[in-house]
Design brief:
seven-stranded mixed sheet; binds pyridoxal-5'-phosphate; alpha/beta; three-stranded antiparallel sheet
Length: 397
């Protein structure tokens, strides 16, 4: 038993750190959604495609062969070799499969491990606002302090090197960025990323670059942060399979980083996860070896949907920034006079369309909602027509 701040007895003691974080703004909302029938969801950020068949088949075949044991903590050697080859072919980056790569339970686990490996209580991590929902809690749970830097629409939802530099203190241990970005779909050019790299180098601060959406770009080239001059040794590159190969449920991703960092992350991973599920690792080998064509097909389809949803949102009076990456549109809802949470809740109840309030991604997400367009064109079109009705009814200007 313990007492809460008002002196009342609590049944269970919950740690201060756990109390410091809030339930995910996305999940909270989806509990409500589950109770309503006939909803079109532009909510959860996951592909509507099933994992390509040849990838599923590889996993099925591994089960048939009885590959059901633990693997190396780092991940299966063949997977690490394949990943090393992939990073070399894609970015001309060389990572030693035995010491510089770690296979994790999604980028989610990699984020948690990296924070636990590099932060002490009171250390600071700079990150954009808005950003992916787990960044802030991952830092708080280590006793660290997230330092949120606005990445506003006026700046194309990019985080600027100058703003980052202004946020650096003697406690800053890392800058966490993710382009293409969730929730905005923003991308950053190589030149602008190079400015961030220059600041990181000068202040000797690590960069954690979450590049889970690296393959989901439209008409622009993705820059891998570790390819910037001298940045490989200062970058922790996080990547995954969830979005590129429609493998969200398999729970597999990776970290590529200097060996001292991988060694520390591996110690934590060893005692907590041990290893990623064996069949997911087999599937990931197949994805890296032969998944390129299926991934390209899915990206083509996302692009078709992207053009339709962005035009549709603008046409119905929700001004929408053009996202060049990921699979999210992030329209402004300011002209309805509602908060983003109010907008999302009322849209769900009145028109049965689920979007995520921008405020779930940080204070600077207020005034926007996230619409995931990794859903069928027919559903996108129906959602747009319902949203139009809603906006016409509620528009204040
Ligand atoms: C930016 C970003 N990073 C990480 C994740 C988590 O990915 P994973 O499924 O690999 O854990 C997500 C999922 O939505 C994401 O959007």
């Amino acid at each position: 038993m313990s007492t809460n701040p008002k002196g009342k007895r609590r049944k269970y003691h919950i740690s201060q750190r756990a109390n410091q974080i809030s339930p995910s703004g996305i999940r909270k909302f989806f509990d409500l959604l589950a109770s309503i029938e006939g909803v079109i969801s532009l909510g959860v950020g996951e592909p509507d495609f099933a994992t390509p068949w040849h990838i599923r088949e590889a996993a099925i075949s591994s089960l048939e062969k009885g590959y059901t044991m633990y693997t190396s903590n780092l991940g299966m050697p063949e997977l690490r070799q394949e990943l090393s080859r992939y990073l070399k072919d894609t970015y001309n980056l060389e990572y030693d499969p035995d010491s510089e790569l770690l296979i994790t339970v999604g980028v989610s686990e990699a984020l948690d491990l990296v924070m636990r490996a590099i932060l002490d209580p009171g250390d600071e991590v700079i990150m954009p606002d808005p950003c992916y929902v787990s960044y802030n809690p991952c830092v708080v749970l280590t006793g660290g302090t997230p330092v949120m830097i606005p990445a506003n629409e006026e700046n194309n939802f990019e985080i600027s090197a100058a703003d980052i530099e202004a946020g650096i203190t003697s406690q800053t241990k890392a800058i966490l960025i993710s382009y293409p970005a969730n929730p905005t779909g923003a991308v950053m050019t190589r030149d602008k990323l190079a400015q961030i790299a220059e600041v990181a180098r000068r202040h000797q601060v690590l960069v954690i670059s979450d590049e889970i959406y690296a393959k989901l770009v439209y008409g622009v080239e993705h820059t891998c942060f570790a390819t910037l001059p001298e940045m490989k040794e200062h970058t922790i590159l996080l990547g995954g399979f969830s979005k590129t190969y429609a493998m969200t449920g398999w729970r597999i991703g990776y970290a590529a980083a200097p060996k001292e960092i991988i060694a520390s992350m591996t110690k934590i991973h060893q005692y907590t996860m041990m290893c990623v599920s064996t069949m997911a690792q087999v599937a990931a080998i197949e994805a890296l070896k032969s998944g390129e064509d299926s991934a390209t097909e899915m990206v083509k389809e996302y692009n078709r949907r992207r053009l339709i949803i962005v035009k549709g949102l603008n046409d119905i009076g929700l001004p929408c920034f053009e996202p060049k990456g990921a699979f999210y549109a992030f329209p402004s809802i300011k002209n309805t006079g509602m908060t983003s949470e109010e907008f999302a809740e009322r849209l769900l109840v009145e028109e049965k369309v689920a979007v995520v309030p921008g405020s779930a991604f940080g204070q600077c997400g207020e005034g926007y909602v996230r619409c995931c367009y990794a859903t069928s064109l027919a559903e996108i079109e129906e959602a747009l027509s319902r949203m139009k009705r809603f906006v016409v009814k509620h528009r204040t200007v």
